[in-house]
């Protein structure tokens, strides 16, 4: 599978960017007739239409329960004046959930399957080339129906024409629509299509000060190739002050950086407290035509190049050859009204709360997040475990070649998009598959083999709910990540059982896999903000505090930073940072999973202060 053009749309001397975010025409297509009636070719969508913000999930924008729980197709449309000031224009959707069909001026332009990842199309051919401006209409049909071969999977039950239920093997609400930005950007005919950059190695002196680093890069050029023999590149690396460090003119080569400033996750060994930003270089690539040397065709900058290495031993996760301990809380892209819709207010609050908490890591549970999260993580030194949307796989999927092929496609798109972010330290290919199923073995063996070829220096894993003795697939991966809910989904109410159960669990995994470090990728308890009881009972703030603290003693006993010689436990990620929306059920009061340290409105519960204290202490373990 080859994917091109997942470079984030960055403005430059040669690239213009136009946001198409705004209020779009919108309507449901409950009867599924829009395509046969050719709604894409009409000047307006058939009434009744409403105004829908883009980006946002459509579900919670109105008071209409039919829109909230809609399953099937919806339509979006927008018109704009287009000024033809560049030779090539690309229409980019940062994501639409799940299946999207796009028409430009009535003509089919691009289709994409899968939420959470961008897709784009060169629309130059659809817009009149002679006129200097024209009116353009974009129509998008989005279908949120999940099937046994989508990722995540889902199962549609049709009891009768008006009673249809989409059963999902995951608890977060299946928010849908154009939930990330829509962007129009220009390039020249020949343009920089893709850039990859990796830290190959870093040399340290005896004080562990970096003396030099080797970066390898590769640049792909796209476009009309008639002038290809006169196309030239300049590759330049600038430091944080904007001073040129090193340059090259090959499309693929190495850059040597003397006395490099390293990128580090915050909270590592005192060297980089969570209150400071991480060190980032900028890579500038210039494409020009040698036939007329002043003719610069394209300039693209990656503003977040981090120099750092990753290496796993059988008991440690090393960043820059020093043991790193992941600590933080996972989240969903989820907030009031917007659903999964991308919003910079929510983004900035998320990272401010992360700084307050002194968290240094999270997993993008359970799908790749909007690009902007990774950019913030690069800057603040937050480690990311990048996860695919493969949540809740079971035998149906393990025996399906179509699912495996789609999974490979999604892995390819995710890694192509995210591989240049220094913050991404590991790839998680699935969350809680039924990996005790015998069919899981062949599936994950094939997926691991495939991903290793693309992994760009990162270890690979999947997140396990299966028991230590039944799991069939993790043997093919690098690290053990387990989700456990002792004293919640099992041993309900029994806080006293946590220490022995957690210790036994970790020891069992270690015994079976003595060569793989272990991380607790989820643990947590639902807590209704403001509900109190002493002694602690389930759902109270007191219970959540004691529940989380109960796990920590067992973690510390085997921690790789507390016990450098015998420890093998490399991190703890709480479930969850925020309360988040779920399907309605008898276990979800008000339609929320309430395991957040913070409410859905981003206000702290008592446990948030417990975690802040712990994370501050973890930062000071030498
Ligand atoms: C899990 C899942 C997560 C759920 C969580 C829960 O193990 O990975 O998606 O939200 O349990 O709270 O039930």
From TrEMBL:
- The parts of the chain that form a coiled coil are none
**Gene3D superfamilies according to UniProt:** Galactose-binding domain-like, Glycosidases, Immunoglobulins
Functional description taken from the UniProt entry: Plays an important role in the degradation of dermatan and keratan sulfates.
Q: Which residues form the Glycosyl hydrolases family 2 sugar binding domain?
A: 17-187
**Top-level division of the source organism's lineage:** Eukaryota
Give, as one word, the top-level EC class: hydrolase
PROSITE patterns assigned? GLYCOSYL_HYDROL_F2_2
Under PANTHER family, the record lists: BETA-GLUCURONIDASE
- Protein name in the entry: Beta-glucuronidase
Question: What EC number(s) has UniProt assigned to this enzyme?
Answer: 3.2.1.31
Q: Name one GO molecular function term.
A: carbohydrate binding
Keywords of the record, alphabetical order, are: Glycosidase, Hydrolase, Signal
């Amino acid at each position: 599978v080859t994917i091109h053009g997942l470079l984030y749309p960055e403005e430059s001397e040669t690239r213009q960017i136009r946001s198409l975010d705004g209020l779009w025409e919108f309507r449901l297509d409950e009867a599924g007739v829009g395509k046969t009636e050719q709604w894409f070719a009409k000047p307006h969508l058939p009434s009744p239409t409403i105004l829908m913000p883009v980006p946002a999930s459509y579900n919670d924008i109105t008071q209409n329960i039919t829109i909230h729980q809609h399953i099937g197709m919806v339509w979006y449309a927008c018109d704009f004046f287009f000024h033809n000031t560049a030779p090539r224009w690309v229409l980019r959707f940062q994501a639409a959930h799940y299946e999207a069909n796009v028409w430009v001026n009535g003509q089919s332009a691009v289709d994409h399957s899968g939420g959470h990842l961008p897709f784009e199309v060169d629309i130059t051919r659809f817009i009149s080339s002679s006129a200097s401006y024209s009116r353009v209409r974009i129509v998008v049909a989005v279908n949120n129906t999940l099937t046994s071969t989508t990722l995540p999977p889902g199962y549609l039950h049709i009891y009768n024409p008006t009673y249809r239920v989409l059963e999902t093997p995951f608890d977060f609400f299946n928010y849908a629509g154009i939930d990330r930005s829509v962007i129009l950007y220009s390039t020249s005919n020949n343009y920089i299509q893709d850039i990859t950059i990796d830290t190959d190695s870093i040399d340290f002196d005896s004080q562990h000060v970096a003396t030099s680093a080797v970066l390898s890069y590769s640049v792909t050029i796209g476009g009309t190739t008639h002038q290809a023999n006169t196309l030239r590149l300049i590759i330049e690396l600038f430091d944080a002050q904007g001073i040129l460090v090193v340059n090259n003119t090959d499309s693929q080569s190495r850059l040597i950086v003397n006395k490099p400033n390293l990128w580090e996750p915050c909270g590592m060994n005192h060297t980089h407290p969570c209150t400071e930003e991480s060190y980032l270089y900028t890579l500038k690539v210039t494409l020009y035509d040698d036939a007329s040397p002043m003719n610069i065709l394209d300039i693209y900058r990656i503003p977040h190049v981090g120099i750092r290495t990753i290496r796993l031993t059988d008991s440690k996760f090393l960043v820059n050859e020093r043991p790193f301990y992941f600590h933080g809380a996972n989240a969903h892209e989820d907030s009031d009204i917007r659903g999964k819709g991308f919003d910079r207010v929510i983004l900035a609050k998320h990272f401010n709360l992360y700084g307050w908490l002194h968290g240094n890591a999270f997993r993008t549970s359970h799908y790749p997040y909007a690009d902007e999260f990774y950019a913030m993580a690069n800057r603040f030194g937050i480690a990311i475990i990048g996860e695919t949307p493969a949540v809740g796989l079971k035998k149906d999927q393990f025996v399906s070649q179509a699912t495996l092929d789609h999974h490979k496609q999604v892995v390819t798109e995710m890694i192509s998009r995210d591989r240049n972010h220094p913050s991404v330290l590991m790839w998680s290919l699935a969350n809680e598959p039924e990996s005790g199923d015998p069919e899981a073995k062949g599936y994950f063996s094939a997926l691991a083999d495939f991903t290793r070829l693309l992994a760009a220096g990162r270890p690979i894993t999947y997140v396990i709910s299966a028991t230590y003795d039944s799991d069939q697939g993790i043997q093919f991966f690098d690290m053990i990540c387990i989700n456990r809910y002792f004293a919640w989904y099992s041993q309900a109410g029994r806080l006293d059982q946590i220490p022995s159960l957690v210790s036994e669990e970790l020891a069992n995994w270690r015994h079976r896999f003595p060569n793989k470090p272990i991380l607790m990728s989820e643990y947590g308890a639902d807590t209704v903000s403001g509900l109190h009881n002493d002694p602690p009972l389930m759902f109270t703030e007191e219970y959540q505090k004691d529940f989380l603290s109960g796990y920590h003693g067992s973690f510390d006993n085997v921690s790789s930073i507390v016990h450098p010689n015998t420890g093998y436990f490399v991190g703890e990620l709480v479930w969850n940072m925020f309360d988040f929306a779920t399907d309605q059920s008898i276990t979800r009061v008000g339609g929320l999973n309430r395991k957040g340290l913070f409410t859905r409105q981003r206000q702290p519960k008592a446990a948030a202060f417990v975690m802040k204290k712990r994370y501050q202490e973890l930062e000071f373990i030498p």
